[in-house]
Amino acid sequence: MTSQANSPKKSPACCIPLFSSPIGRKWIVAITGIVLVLFVIGHLLGNMTIFVGPDAMNAYAAFLKSTGEILWVVRIVLLACVVLHIWFTITLWRENLKARPQQYAVKSNLGTTVYARLMRLSGLTVLAFVIYHLAQFTWEAFNPEYKSWFDAQGRHDVYRMVVTAFSCPFVSAFYILAVGLLGMHLSHGIASLFQTLGITTEKLRPVFETSGKIIAWIIFLGFASIPTSVLLGLVKVPSSLPACPFCH
Ligand code: HEM
Questions:
Q1: pTM (2 decimals)?
Q2: Contacts with 212 (C-beta within 8 Å, 6 or more apart), sequence order
Q3: Which atom of ligand 1 is closest in space to residue 78's alpha carbon?
Q4: Residue 88 C-alpha to ligand 1 middle, in angstroms?
Q5: Of the residues 138, 176, 182, 219, which should be mutated to test ligand 1's pocket, given the most ligand atoms within 8 Å of the CB?
Q6: What is the pLDDT along the chain (248 residues), one digit of tens a residue?
Q7: Distance, CA of 236 to CA of 222 (rounded, Å)
Q8: Residue identifier of the C-alpha nearest atom 19 of ligand 1
């Protein structure tokens, strides 16, 4: 028998110092949160090409697809961030239930807002929305005909797909609600990640809270502007839209 075999078994969490302390786990939640917020901002900027026109949006989508392996690396990193963010949020929440009060790097009253109390609910709803969203636009599971829509240049007609989907008021309303919850989640989340990283002071706290709210509002209004513009007829496809399964 080797000495290794006799030594007590360590759980994987004990082997990685970052995972084994509450502060380390909070850092993981904060860093994965930053990565996800950066993705959301990037995705919003990309989606804004819809206001430039079909050519701009389809060219942007085709460019993303053309990145091949890089796109897959980004997808894997994002998936890992989602899993870690949720896993360690749940772990910390369970630990906090056992041992209160919650220890932030700087004590604050952030935990008292409605948004703070709804963090878990808004987070899980956003997760459910993302799964629906992937099924709709990435896997094209609800409308397989989207797969065969190409523009004059032979690129996937993402513009037509999005405008067609949002021409249904139920789909648009659902998106607006979901991005509203995303905004709520980010409004509190952005402010609290600065606390977790220990860079908040009494003086800076209002600055971070206001910045969190402004970023969250920009993200909400930016995403919500797309279905709203389609419903108002400001963004449309030249050809007639296929019938919406809910409305017709
Ligand atoms: C009005 C709002 C939105 C629109 C119009 C939109 C549009 C799209 C489209 C068209 C795609 C597929 C791109 C392609 O395969 O060519 C996509 C993918 C995706 N969207 Fe959105 N999106 C919106 C909001 C969001 C939000 C709020 C999130 C996250 C919270 C999100 C997360 C994603 C993810 C993770 C993908 C998969 C990216 C990949 O293929 O790797 N989207 N979106």
A1: 0.86
A2: 186, 187, 188, 189, 190, 191
A3: 35
A4: 25
A5: 138
A6: 344 444 444 444 445 667 778 788 889 999 999 999 999 999 999 999 999 999 999 999 999 999 999 999 999 999 999 999 999 988 888 887 777 655 555 555 544 567 677 888 899 999 999 999 999 999 999 999 999 999 999 999 999 999 999 999 999 999 999 999 999 999 989 988 888 887 778 888 888 889 999 999 999 999 999 999 999 999 988 665 555 556 54
A7: 18
A8: 134
